[in-house]
């Protein structure tokens, strides 16, 4: 890949955008980060509520729960995005993404160890330049880990219910090239667009991929997955370094 032409922002095809993470961005949340994938910026906040949903009590389901909400703020895009509340309902994309975030976090969360608590994860996009769902998942894990540490420190949980980390990244075919972590200018015209969610131990949580009025081969799919794995290993290392700095003294950072 070293001899291929650079992308519009100067990156190599297999290179992530610069990743930035700021802890405790929302001070009233139990745990929060402002995460940046290049020019995409998302506030991810985790709040612990000491109760579980009614359906769990009614059905006698033991343990806790995690749920996620996602939104793009009106000024996050070039053209103002109308708030869902002003339309009277969530749009399909919003529902899809917040369900994806919830599934991704629950895949690495032992709900029994969470106790009778609900972990709310809110992801609000401040600035959108492609990859808002992948940035949201990557940052949501960090916010959740910071929130859970507060419960552990307060002796409200006996052990860490997070059994692994989780992160997500986009890959795609753009002008015939396999690219990692697509910015909007690439994403909007990509022939193939995929999002891959993976745990820190390298287990897939979800793979979303589709051709945009195009098809793709088995070999191209394998190439995209390999590219995603490379990026996700790097993201996992970034998450671990961030948490090591934030949670000095913690034995487990899972």
First-residue to last-residue Cα separation:
33 Å
Strand composition percent: 25-35%
**What is the CA-atom radius of gyration, in angstroms?**
18 Å
CATH superfamily: GHMP Kinase, N-terminal domain
Describe the protein:
- By secondary structure, the protein is an alpha+beta fold.
- It has a single domain, classed as 2-Layer Sandwich (Ribosomal Protein S5, domain 2), CATH 3.30.230.70.
- 31% of the residues lie in helices and 27% in strands.
- The chain contains six helices and nine strands.
- The protein has helices spanning 54-59, 84-87, 92-106, 132-153, 184-187, 218-246; strands at 19-23, 31-37, 40-49, 65-72, 118-127, 166-174, 177-180, 192-199, 204-211.
- The strands form two sheets. A five-stranded mixed β-sheet has the order 1-2-3-5-4.
- A hairpin with a 4-residue loop joins strand 8 (192-199) and strand 9 (204-211).
- The protein is globular and about 55 Å long.
- The two termini are 33 Å apart.
């Amino acid at each position: 890949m070293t001899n291929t032409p650079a992308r519009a922002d100067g990156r190599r095809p297999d290179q992530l955008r610069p990743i930035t993470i700021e802890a405790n961005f929302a001070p009233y949340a139990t745990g929060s980060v402002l995460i940046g994938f290049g020019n995409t910026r998302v506030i991810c906040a985790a709040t612990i509520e000491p109760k579980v949903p009614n359906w769990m009590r009614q059905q006698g389901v033991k343990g806790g729960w995690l749920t996620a909400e996602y939104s793009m703020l009106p000024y996050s895009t070039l053209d103002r995005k109308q708030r869902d509340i002003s339309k009277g309902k969530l749009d399909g994309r919003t529902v899809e993404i917040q369900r994806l975030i919830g599934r991704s976090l629950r895949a690495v969360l032992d709900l029994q160890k969470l106790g009778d608590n609900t972990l709310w994860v809110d992801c609000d996009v401040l600035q959108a330049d492609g990859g808002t769902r992948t940035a949201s998942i990557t940052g949501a894990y960090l916010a959740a880990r910071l929130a859970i540490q507060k419960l552990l420190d307060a002796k409200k949980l006996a052990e860490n219910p997070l059994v692994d980390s989780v992160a997500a990244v986009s890959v795609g075919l753009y002008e015939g090239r396999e690219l990692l972590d697509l910015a909007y200018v690439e994403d909007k015209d990509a022939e193939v667009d995929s999002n891959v969610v993976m745990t820190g131990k390298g287990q897939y949580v979800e793979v979303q991929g589709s051709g945009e009025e195009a098809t793709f081969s088995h070999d191209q799919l394998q190439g995209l997955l390999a590219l995603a794995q490379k990026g996700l290993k790097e993201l996992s290392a970034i998450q671990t370094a961030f948490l090591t700095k934030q949670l000095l003294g913690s034995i487990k950072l899972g």
